[in-house]
Every structure is written in C-alpha cells, then in structure tokens.
Task: inverse folding
C-alpha cells in the first residue's frame, strides 16, 4: 500500500458569505500541488465531533465552485460550538468537545486544520489551537469588522448588493418624490452602510459608530428640498444605535446566540414620516447581502487567503490567521485578530469625503463639510 499522504482539513464556520467556496477551491488546489490530500468537515465545527462528517476535497471535485455563493461544506453559527453570546462576551467550548475534535483530527491524520470564519468562529479556532490542534485561521464576514485585516472577503459582494439596491431605490424615490430607507447588515460596524451609501449616492448614512438624532436626519431632508431635491435616500446599518442608545432586535437571545438585529429601518421611516409628514418607504436588504455570486475582488482575495492558509500549514505556523495588509497577504496570531474589531473611524477619509459632499450622518457635524 502506498504511504498515506499528509492531510489538510478545511471547515467553514459562522454565517456564510460570498467567497467561501473560492477559499475552499484555492486551498484544495494549492494543497494538492504540495502533495497533500484535503478533507472538508461539514456544518462547521460540528463535523469534527460525533457524528463526524467530512468529505474528500479534490481539485476535480471543487472545479467550478469559484463563483458559487455559500459554502459547499455547510456552516452553522449556533449550537455546541457557538463562541459568542454578545459583544465582548466569549464562551468557552466544552472541554469534552475539544477533546473529541482533537481525537478526530488525530485519527484522520490531519496535519493542519484551516478554519474559515468570523470573530466567533475564529474564537473557537483559537480554543482548538490552545487545545493542541494544529489550526490556521482565515477571516470572513460581510461586515468587514475583523481586526488586523484591511478587508474580509464577502464585504465587497455585500456592498455591491446594497449599492445595486440603492441604485434601484433612487429611480423610484425620485419618480414618487419619496424618502426611502434602506436597512443593511452590520452588527458592530457600519462598513456596508458607509461604502454602499457612498457608492449608491445615499443622502443620509446612519452607523453604529456615529451617534445621530432625528432632528438632523429630518433637517437633511428639508435642506435637500430647499435645493429642489424632493426625494432622499437614507441608509441605516442594522447595528446603529437609536438616539436613546438602544439597539433594535427581536428581543430574544437564543441559547448561546447573539441577538437577532433588525427593524431599525422601519423605526427611522415611521419617525421621519411623522415629523415631516412625507411619504417614506423602507426596504430591509437582509440575507440578500450574504447570498449569490462573489465579486471579482472577493474571488481574488478569497483565493489568496486560501493559498496562503496552505502555506501557513506547510510551514507549521499554527495559531495564525491570514490577513490582508495591502499590498501584501500576511498573517497574525488569531488571538490578536479576535481581540480587535475593526469599526468605521468617524473621522476617517471615507466619512470626511461623504461629509464634504453633503451626505449627512444625522449629527451636528452635518452642517460643517470638513468636520
Ligand atoms: O455577521 C454577519 C451577519 O450578516 C450580521 O451582519 C448579521 O447581524 C448576522 O450575520 C445575521 O446572522 P443570521 O444569519 O444568523 O441571522
């Protein structure tokens, strides 16, 4: 019998995003060229423990998935391997589960496990690493809120989707002289709202990072009307705080889960309609942002991440996470990346450029272009 080839395992954890399959394909191809076999564990970390579930990954079997949304391996952000229940609140994984996962990795002869995930899934990867499992991390999230990397793949695709929605809302808003509110994802960070708001010609952008109030939002609508513009596009991140500081969510915090955000768009719409007596409509983009074909940028970034993750395994650099520090793909300790969320700088260049153009953020600085 020929000697068994060294094996690399891959899994995708947390909420899905466009580009996951591009990582799987890239890692499989790069690993194959170095003489590794690849296994894909199914349904995130669940595939590592009883009943263990995995599938062989080959260059042939992953052909054609570069442009497919979602993940062929499946994913989950709930259950036994949920590492987050709320911001800054991390939960330890049951040591027995960690031991089971370690046993699976040993029995299958996996010499490196590539864990693709957001902050929650990478926090689990860190725990596996501390338990002696040879782990390498790959950051993903449409929210772009992971520290130590300029971009995560999935973000550009989500922004493209939200921008397309704004383009469409623009024409109908203008035709009917209406105010349109678009609610986009962004739990801790307003990156999607900010970038789509700029790219899609939004007039007001409400973010978790900038405190806002209804007076300033309404004033922007009135200012536009005074300039003869009888419609307004408002973009709001689901994680933006209401003026009283509250978050809008479904009320429940399921077992070992984060609250399900959503609903702020409708609250903004109702209040603006009440105060100004104008017609306002709301669109919640929701999971449309997470599905579908990845953009060329996301495919390229995901491919580089997948290939670099294999390189880290090959060089034995476990406990590290691949990251993008333009123009280079590098790596940092996973522990460092999960400690630092990346949020919008209220004084950063994108916000400044938006303000310079007259885009409002619902605060007092709306009236001073280079605040
Ligand atoms: O973290 C990515 C994200 O898309 C958040 O923006 C959003 O709050 C969350 O996932 C939604 O998760 P679920 O699919 O579990 O509702």
Result:
């Amino acid at each position: 019998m020929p000697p068994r080839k060294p094996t690399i395992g891959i899994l995708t954890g947390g909420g899905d995003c466009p580009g996951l399959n591009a990582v799987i394909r890239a890692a499989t191809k790069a690993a194959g060229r170095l003489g590794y076999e690849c296994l894909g564990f199914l349904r995130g970390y669940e595939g590592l423990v009883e009943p263990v579930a995995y599938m062989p990954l080959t260059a042939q079997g992953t052909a054609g998935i570069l442009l497919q949304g979602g993940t062929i391996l499946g994913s989950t952000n709930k259950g036994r391997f949920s590492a987050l229940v709320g911001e800054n609140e991390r939960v330890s994984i049951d040591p027995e589960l960690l031991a089971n996962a370690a046993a699976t990795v040993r029995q299958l002869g996996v010499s490196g496990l590539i864990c693709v995930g957001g902050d929650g899934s990478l926090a689990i990867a860190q725990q596996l690493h501390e338990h002696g499992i040879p782990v390498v991390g790959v950051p993903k999230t449409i929210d772009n809120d992971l520290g130590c990397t300029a971009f995560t793949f999935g973000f550009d695709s989500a922004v493209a989707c939200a921008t397309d929605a704004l383009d469409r809302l623009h024409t109908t808003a203008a035709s009917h002289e209406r105010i349109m509110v678009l609610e986009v994802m962004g739990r801790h960070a307003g990156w999607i709202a900010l970038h789509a708001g700029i790219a899609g010609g939004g007039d007001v952008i409400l973010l978790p990072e900038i405190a806002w109030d209804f007076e300033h939002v309404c004033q922007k609508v009135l200012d536009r009307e005074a300039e003869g513009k009888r419609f307004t596009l408002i973009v709001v991140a689901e994680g933006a705080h209401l003026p009283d500081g509250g978050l809008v969510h479904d009320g429940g915090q399921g077992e070992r889960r984060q609250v399900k955000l959503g609903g702020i768009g409708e609250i903004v719409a109702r209040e603006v309609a009440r105060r100004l007596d104008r017609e306002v409509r709301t669109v919640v983009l929701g999971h449309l942002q997470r599905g579908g074909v990845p953009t060329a940028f996301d495919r390229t970034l995901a491919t580089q991440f997948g290939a670099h993750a294999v390189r880290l395994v090959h060089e034995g650099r476990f406990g590290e996470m691949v990251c993008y520090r333009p123009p280079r793909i590098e790596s940092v300790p996973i522990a460092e990346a999960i400690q630092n969320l990346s949020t919008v700088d209220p004084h950063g260049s994108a916000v400044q450029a938006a303000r310079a153009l007259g885009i409002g953020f619902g605060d007092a600085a709306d009236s001073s272009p280079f605040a």
